[in-house]
Amino acid sequence: MSSTQYELHGRVAVISMHNPPVNGLGYELRRGIVDGVKKAEADDNVKAVVIIGSEQAFSGGADIREFGTPKMMAEPTLPTVINFLDTTTKPVVAAIGGVAMGGGLELAMGCHYRIAKADTKVALPEVKLGILPGAGGTQRLPRLIGVEHALNLIVSGATVPAAMFKGSPLFDEFSQGELLQDALAFAEKLIDEGKGIRRVRDMKVSHPKAEAFFMWAGNGIQQMAKNYPAPMKCLEAVKASVFKKFDDGIKVERDAFAQLIQTEESKSLRHAFFAERATSKIPDVPEDTPTRDIKSVGVIGAGTMGSGIAINFLNAGIPVRILEMKQEALDRGVKHIQGVYEGRVKKGKMTAEDAEKKVALLQPTLSYDDLSDVDLVIEAVFEDMGVKQQVFEKLDQICKHGAILASNTSTLDLNKIASFTKRPEDVIGLHFFSPANVMKLLEVVRGEKTSKEVLATSMKLAKKIKKTAVISGVCDGFIGNRMVGRYQTEALLMLEEGATPQQIDKAIEKFGFVMGPLRMADLAGGDIGWAIRKRHYEEKPDMKRMVIADRLCEMGRFGQKTGAGFYKYIPGNRKPQHDPEVDKVIEECRKEMGITPRKISDQEIVERCVYALVNEGARILEEGIAQRASDIDIVYLTGYGFPVFRGGPMFYADQVGLLNVVRAIEKIRENPNTDSKFWEPAPLLAKLADEGKTFN
Fold this sequence. Notes:
This protein is α/β, with parallel strands linked by helices. The protein contains 27 helices and 17 strands.
């Protein structure tokens, strides 16, 4: 079936693009555009051409379904298509509505004229994949909107409204009515006025202080880009548009594209892009699985987590009833929610009127009875099985038939929680990450009796509240916290062996993490980790105690919330400060354990922490807790601050080479202070390494 339609409207040929959902520039669509141009050229009655997409999209750019297939690079490629448009002798008008992204915007810029709906969104987002626009975008955009605007748009990859460029040659007219009719009228006007073709490549581009501007911009971009090479390559290409002829500038762009697409950073960013889209695919849950309407939500617990969860639904326009046991706690939660919206208004992120509408959707309550008719209830109470049991038994009595009962538990057995009800098929885990209204990740925990309908509903709802949802099976800690437990254990063991908190955190942050494991523990709250460890000590009496971490907690040092943890904190300042008291505790604990401190390298710190994630991730994958390795990567990229330019722990292991990872793990296992059983390479990891394969 053709991806284009060719029609004659008097003297104007219309090439309509039809490749749902966003007119991705796949092979058939590219072929259809070229064939349409050839057909128009051969018809003497045709005096102009209009290229148009759908109301939703002129074109969203490359067709991601073709990535990695021969069709992606088959002729006509996008540069070839644009060359056909650029060199035809009949004026070509791009009629743009919905979105024009990446290659879609480059296609439009390859046309001679452009008419757009004012609410159209445009972007060149390639930098977010570690590359740059590769079909002339870095050369044409500066000619159309000026060097500074073009550089900002290309380096940021930001999506902006077309109306921002009103008055520039990027858009000759804005459609006020029906786009096709307005485009046809515009084309007829061009014919009547004898305007002919106007190639963007022939336009002049300049800057009054070009050298100084690019030097200043380069300093800023270099500081911002850090581990990403693409932004500086974008600058070099845009600079070429000013100082070189068009064709020479195109060569600079294409050379940069060819270099960037081979970099580890681009491979990682592209992996993350596709991995995020793969998370919603559940092999045994068809896309047409029925879902339930979620028109109202109940949240139990108005603490930091509960109030953060509530904000997600308020943002989506879904009414929330938030429950607490005491008025004081309820008032505190409501005040926090109001404060978040007031802060957004002050920062200009929303209007006061919008904030009022969101807060008006919130109904505070002290009675479970007010949750009787909600469609979904999420509990965010204390992480204790006894407390969870009381809550779910109560919900089972009160909530209507068909209501979804969700737990925000981060470590506890969801199957056991479901057993407290007579409807385990309606129970699911929705594990938000703190702060819940900011963090993108949502672990959707599938119990052994969770229905497919409830699972599909939860995944659909996650999109509505703008979360990246990853399916997890049931185990202690699910995907994220089960792995992070091993990661933090290695950090604590290295504290015993001779490292300092500062050295450990700096080494991990230099690797690219947003923050090191001990800073993260202080942020999350030492008491939370301590409670989990105490539960584990009871369940596994022979388990090694984390003496230093336990000692600090016994002293009431729970991190930022108490002003002291592995670091000390000055009121009003979250920056960790070195604390000699911690040095003293570490020294005392080492003496009690009979450990003589040794020098630990930054490389050892990184390998032990990161490979702990990889080894545990391999076990999680083998057990079927995670659906795919890339899901584990997304958990760590969106929930735990793993460096995006490294693609996630499992992808990073692939890049290092699994044989090299296994060799490093076997060396770590020789350390008598580590858990030798844990450091036995996971069977899946060992198997893949032996076969020369990868996780992804």
